[in-house]
Input
Amino acid sequence: MQAKDLKPGMWVECQQGVAEVIDVDQEHNTAIIESMSDHKRININCDDIKEQPQLHTGCDSYY
Output
């Protein structure tokens, strides 16, 4: 994904699993995400993030 496509509060999937987008840095194409498995916040390149339309706010699993 690209930083311009991300917004705080979105649920996404990455190597760390399901995560919530906390903040986006469009200039560097990075985002701070919070992993739902351990609640750690990490800075990740937006190219490593996959949008998962089956994830939605308030739900950390597929339906």
Summary: The longest strand covers residues 17-25. The CA atoms of residues 11 and 20 lie 5 Å apart. The beta strands are 11-14, 17-25, 30-35, 41-45, 50-51. The chain has no helices and five strands.
